[in-house]
């Protein structure tokens, strides 16, 4: 029989205390081993709450960890170090995302994005910036997407 647990942990900082320890203890798994595995898988999301799904086989005590990712918009805000996006994105810009930061976000989200290639995922991140009032490479995000489609940023992908 398998047990499934869904918890929200701070990236890279899960502890054997609540909510994990009291829940895992009765299942007979090595709590420290599970916590260390969660921290290893969530270290890219330090400072953010991350959804984690644990599947535990109660007979063999084997476990599987699936880590969800925060929304793309939350990752963008973290990278540009602002609290929230612009209320009027066309008129007010809240920050600038570098090409390297956009690539980093697209890599973090690659398992949950629709884009199959690095280029497509990069365009998804840039597209999210449009509605947030965030420039990319000090340009309007729509301009960056046009440049990518015209063959620009070739060395990036």
Word description of this protein:
By secondary structure, the protein is an alpha+beta fold. The protein folds into 2 domains: 2-67, 2-Layer Sandwich (Ribosomal protein L11, N-terminal domain), CATH 3.30.1550.10; 72-156, Orthogonal Bundle (Arc Repressor Mutant, subunit A). 38% of the residues lie in helices and 18% in strands. The chain has 6 helices and 5 strands; from the N terminus they run E-H-H-E-E-H-E-H-H-E-H. The chain has helices at 20-24, 31-42, 72-80, 99-108, 118-132, 141-149, and strands at 2-10, 49-57, 63-67, 95-97, 134-136. The strands form 2 sheets. A 3-stranded antiparallel β-sheet has the order 1-2-3, covered by helices on one side. The chain has a two-stranded parallel ribbon with strand order 4-5. A hairpin with a 5-residue loop joins strand 2 and strand 3 (63-67). The longest helix is centred in the C-terminal third of the chain and has 15 residues, at 118-132. The chain is elongated, with a radius of gyration of 19 Å. 23% of the residues are buried.
């Amino acid at each position: 029989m398998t047990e499934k647990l869904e918890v929200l942990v701070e990236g890279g900082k899960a502890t054997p205390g609540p909510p994990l320890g009291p829940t895992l203890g009765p299942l007979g798994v090595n709590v420290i081993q599970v916590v260390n595995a969660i921290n290893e898988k969530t270290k890219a999301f330090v400072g953010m709450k991350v959804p984690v799904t644990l599947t535990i086989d109660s007979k063999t005590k084997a476990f599987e960890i699936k880590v969800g990712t925060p929304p793309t918009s939350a990752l963008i805000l973290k990278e540009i170090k602002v609290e929230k996006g612009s209320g009027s994105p066309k008129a007010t810009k809240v920050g600038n995302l570098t090409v390297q930061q956009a690539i980093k976000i697209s890599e973090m989200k690659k398992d949950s994005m629709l884009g199959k290639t690095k280029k497509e995922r990069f365009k998804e991140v840039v597209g999210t910036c449009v509605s947030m009032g965030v420039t990319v490479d000090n340009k309007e995000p729509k301009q960056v997407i046009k440049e990518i489609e015209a063959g620009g940023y070739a060395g990036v992908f």
